[in-house]
Amino acid sequence: MQWKNGDTTNGQVVAGGKGEGNGLNQLNGPRDVVIDKETDSLIICDLANRRVVRWSRRSGTTQGEIVIDDIGCSGLAMDEQRYLYVSDEGKYEVRRYQLGEKNGTLVAGGNGKGDGLNQLNYPTYLFVDRQQNVYVSDHNNHRVMKWVKGATEGIVVAGGQGYGNALTQFGYPQGLLVDTVGTLYVADSFNHRVMRWTQGDKKHGTVIAGGNGQGANQLNGPYGLSFDRHGNLYVSDRNNHRVQRFSIE
């Protein structure tokens, strides 16, 4: 769906909308999306169809095209060189692809399911910085990992203290972002909050949005995160079936 800023009532379908299915005009459980500005298209993680698809944003588009097939895609990111990064929840790994490439290059995990520094357990959302370092929401390990470009193991940059709601912990982290000064923002889904971790502070984060419930200042199972150019934080408030905007100090 595409929603114009300020218009909360009239969204526009820009991909799918033909019911659940595996046709090229359908999606099934889409999990993540990135915009490829160069081709003015959406690249979509079509999770239940085990594929990554591309839909043009030009008017009149009625179907997508398969970019990567047979992949348990649960997160996407694109760097400034237009490399596409895809997390594969079933193979416990993240791969980097040139658009048009089918096999990709392993950049995180790939050593089976586990909680070692060279392993992941159900990787979901991704963020890639300008140095092509990859940040991974390591969902079932309740931590965020940073894999420096070319590394054979990752670094725990937040969480990793087991499941819980202390400021040192996550409950199944999802969406994540890193700003230009290295501050990490994480959707802590089962704790119904968004956490901020400043660079170098591995011990604990700060709650900047949320709490369990449905009020205007609360969240219920947050998933995706995004910032606009004014520094407002947008949160996909999954179980409340809405997107919320927060002004972050």
Automatic annotation (TrEMBL):
Pfam families: NHL (PF01436). One of its GO terms (cellular component) is extracellular region. Residues 1-12 have a biased composition (Polar residues). The lineage of its organism: Eukaryota, Metazoa, Spiralia, Gnathifera, Rotifera. InterPro entries: 6-blade_b-propeller_TolB-like, NHL_repeat. NHL repeats lie at residues 113-150, 210-249. This is Uncharacterized protein. It comes from the Eukaryota. Transmembrane segments: none annotated. The keyword Signal applies. CDD domains: NHL. Keywords: Glycoprotein, Repeat, Signal. The keyword Zinc-finger does not apply. Residues 1-22 are annotated as: Disordered. It comes from Rotaria magnacalcarata.
